[in-house]
Specification:
Radius of gyration: 14 Å
Order of helices and strands: HHH
Structural class: mainly alpha
Distance between the termini: 26 Å
Shape: globular
Number of strands: 0
Helix content: over 70%
């Protein structure tokens, strides 16, 4: 059964994915990785709130959000 996700959850994950990509293309620094860590924190908070609101298991919501964002980012062909 597919989980119907609010777009804002997937968008937050996309932003976290982009922030990770940017952070990992540079030499490590706390300042350089802060946007990624902040984005991940925002995703976790939103996923937890949605899971609590809907009564769905948090880990299932998180997996669905990550899978949806990943599938949308995958190159076609």
């Amino acid at each position: 059964m597919a989980i119907e996700l609010p777009e804002h959850l997937v968008q937050l994950q996309r932003e976290a994915n982009m922030a990770r990509q940017q952070a990992t293309t540079r030499e490590y620094s706390a300042e350089g990785w802060k946007p990624w860590l902040d984005a991940v924190e925002a995703v976790h908070a939103a996923v937890s709130a949605y899971a609590k609101e809907t009564g769905m298991p948090r880990n299932e919501v998180e997996q669905a959000v990550k899978a949806t964002a990943r599938a949308e980012a995958a190159p076609e062909g």
